Amino acid sequence: MKNLKSIIIRILWVALLLYQFGSLQGQSLISIRGRIIDEQNQAVAYANIALYNRADSSFISGSISDQEGNFQLSQTKLGHFFISVSFVGFESVVKQLDLQTWLAVDLGTIRLREERLEIEEARISAERIKAKREVDRTTFYINSQMVKASGTAVDLIKYVPGVQVDLFHNISLEGKSNILILVNGMERDANFLSQLDPQGIDKVEIIDHPGAQYRSDISAVINIILKENDKRGTSGHVYGELPLTRKEVYAFPTASVNLSLNKVNLYVSYDGEFSHFDIEGINKKQFSISGFDTTITKTELKQQESWSHKFNAGMDYHINPRNQLSLYGFVNPWSNQFDGIVVLNETVDDLILNSRNAYGDEINRNRMVYGSIFYKHLFSKPGSQLSLDLNYYSFNGHSTVLYQEENGNTYDNLSDPRQKAISARLNVSIPLSERLMISAGVREMTQRMGDAYWTAFKYQELVSAAYTSMSFSGEHLQLRGGLRMEHAVSNRENSSSITTLLPDMSAKINLPNKKSLQFNYGKTVKRPTVYQLNPNKNRIDPYTTIQGNPSLKPATQHELSMDYSILVKNNYLSMGTFYTQENDCMEYLSSVSEVSHIQTTMQNLGSIDMLGVKILGSVKPVKHVSFNPFLRVYGVHTRGNELAKNNGIENRYQMALESGFSMSVLFKHNFSLNTLWKYNSAHTRIQGSSFDDMLYFLALEKTFKDVFMIGITSAIPFRKEFTYMGGETSGRGFKEKFEENIQMSVVPVWLKFKYSFSAGKKGKLIDRTGDFVESTKRKRMIQ
Questions:
Q1: Are 180 and 221 in contact (CB under 8 A)?
Q2: Residue 29: enclosing H or E segment and its boundaries?
Q3: Would you give the DSSP letter of residue 714?
Q4: CA 479, CA 134: separation in Å to the nearest integer?
Q5: What distance in Å separates the CA atoms of residue 688 and residue 585, rounded to the nearest whole number?
Q6: Mind listing the pLDDT tens digit for each residue in 628-640?
Q7: From 229's CA, which of 68, 352, 647, 715 has a CA 20 to 30 Å away?
Q8: Which residues, other chains included, contact 360 with Cβ-Cβ below 8 Å and sequence gap of 6+?
Q9: What is the separation, in whole angstroms, between the first and last Cα of the chain?
């Protein structure tokens, strides 16, 4: 009996172990999977999926979606359950689930709708991921910390990795300066961003390799996506900056009012720019003629007085759910003026040959006008649409540079540039399947350039373009490719019609653990501006002349890159390598005449190759601290053409660096401490190089209930002098170097304030792709 009892106990233990083992083996028999997307058919990454028991609502298991929106979880029992899908900024979705068999369950596609309560979105926005990489763009999500550190949208995009904003609000992206600015897909210029309230911005899309649908001269796109609101009402803001000393007047005031009615959204805004600095300009030329060493030194003590008033107005009209109309325009008078004392010294073999004192007076007054009409029609098939753009642009300028010497000699320089352009674009997008999209379009642009003072200069150009692109979105692979063909006809000297093919392609491979690998290739073309084409000779000073060239050829650029990105606890990091080749580079060619004058003419001088690595990120190392670094290190190889070689210009290879970071620290009671830093080494070109000093800002701000903000800002403290523009040039038998230095206080300080008001929320804005950009440089600095 004792042995029998022992045997029975052993059998029971074995049975119990077998039951537990069988139970454990059966825990993964039922697989539940699906895919999460939003209302724009975009994948929703890192959404929360939770499985509950329907009887008592007890939690059973959970998971999150990957970067493509896919999710999978397991269940060990049959029965009645429900699944909850949620993500910040979206309404939760609940699905009933009855498990009657041990077969896998595919819930298919689950669509999330955006949450309409703005207060909830603001409360939880800091929990969002920092960024998401897609095949054609990188999306950076805006959190409350970034908003509290920003007075305008210009301040806010400074916290986007790779975006750099200089002292005069000129924007560049990873070294590229020809940037297209969009707001909800609608074309705007950089100044328009000043009137946007950061509280209304949802995310910023960075398109560093624009596709065929964009104009051929665009090197990058920044698209500001606003929060979507349905309620009617009024809203707006007033923003101002106040310098504490008259020595550093540096202000960008803005104001805006928005009125949303039933189907119409109306808005007006004002953007101002005011700067007044004391500047010391130093220019030194050295050359050797007939065995004599000559040095010409020019020293300028001048005051810069710049102002700009820009008035914007627009209307978005939702005719019906399938037809939308948008009107937008601005008028922008602006001036950039330099006045002061000029001292010129000419020495030959260390003996002073000539010394001149003069008074310099420069007037540069301009007016820009822009208007656009945009129409979009949505077809019955989701994702299918047709859009039409009409754009008008006009620029009228007047520039006078006068040097009056003490002995009565006068040197003047007059220019009245004119430019008018009209463009029209038609685009159609059609989804061929759930994962395959095709789009195509045509564009016509005609422009005229001239000079009212130099009437012999008249330039006309007609550019016709046709393009198509296709994109594929798979679970682990995303592809995009396009081709743009442009045919340009102009009346330039010694030129004929030119047809250019511009291909582009991108591929993104999704790797495990929230990683991805991206490949890009694109070709762009840069056409000359009115200043580069004008052949009339302008005298900068008694020793220097400068002129354009109507025979310039457009410059083309090829760019190839590979990027590796990773998301670690919602922190975004990206690193990669890139190669660019620019052909027929348009640059000023300087040479020495027999009478010791420097003659500068715009020419095509050869090609430039750049090969390097880059790293950028958006991270939160500790709570309440956001850090956004950016770094590019690359080698520059210049190869001059025959014209460059005949002027003694040698090929060069140099290393270069571009770097910057932004950091924001949020304290209690809505105080924030913010810093921005930018440093770039000399920018190497075929004949010379350009440079500027390291730029950094410090700011302390406080917000009151997201309605009122006050702050104090200091730029480049403890430096006293800031080189905002400099350059070096060398050729056969001569060298030239110049610097433009702003004289500053030890600690320059500006106060700033902002007041936001709202009586309701904005209506929906129309989604649109921009098609036009100002070809005239907004800021023009004269050596």
A1: yes
A2: none
A3: E
A4: 10
A5: 13
A6: 999 999 999 999 9
A7: 68
A8: 300, 302, 338, 339, 340, 341, 342, 401, 402, 403
A9: 112
Segments of the chain assigned to CATH 2.60.40.10: 2-111
Residues near 420 by beta carbon (within 8 Å), at least 6 away in sequence = 393, 394, 395, 447, 448
Segment 181-209 shows an average pLDDT of: 82
Question: What span, in angstroms and rounded, lies between the C-alpha atoms of 417 and 561?
Answer: 38
Alpha-carbon distances, residue 484 vs 201, 399, 440, 443, 503 (angstroms): 32, 37, 10, 10, 6
Question: Which SS3 state, helix, strand or coil, does residue 376 take?
Answer: strand
All CATH 2.40.170.20 domain ranges of the chain, comma separated, are: 131-760
Chain-wide mean pLDDT for the chain? Answer: 84
Local structure of residue 251 (DSSP, 8 states): E
Q: 561 vs 162, 171, 207, 222, CA distance in Å?
A: 15, 22, 13, 19
pLDDT tens digits for 203-234? 899 998 888 888 888 888 999 988 765 556 88
Cβ(23)–Cβ(61) below 8 Å? no
Q: In what order do the strands lie in the sheet with 586-592?
A: 538-541, 544-547, 598-604, 586-592
Residue 129 has pLDDT above 80, yes or no: no
Cβ-count burial 203-234 (b if 16+ within 10 Å, e if not): bbbbbbbbbbbbbbbbbbbbbbbbbbbeebee
Please calculate the CA angle 181-186-191 and round it to the nearest 5 degrees: 40
Using DSSP's 3-state secondary structure scheme, residue 411 falls into strand
Dihedral sign (CA 450, 180, 202, 167) = negative
Cα 419 from chain centre:
25
Amino acid at 391: N
pTM of the model: 0.76
Q: How far is CA 456 from CA 415, 417, 449, 550, in A?
A: 13, 12, 11, 12
At residue 243 the predicted structure's pLDDT band, cuts being 50, 70 and 90, is confident
Of 255, 186, 267, 196, nearest to 222 by C-alpha is: 186
**CATH architecture for segment(s) 2-111:** Sandwich (2.60)
CA distance 547 to 538: 6
CATH fold of 131-760: Maltoporin; Chain A (2.40.170)
Measured distance CA(696)–CA(677) in Å, rounded:
4
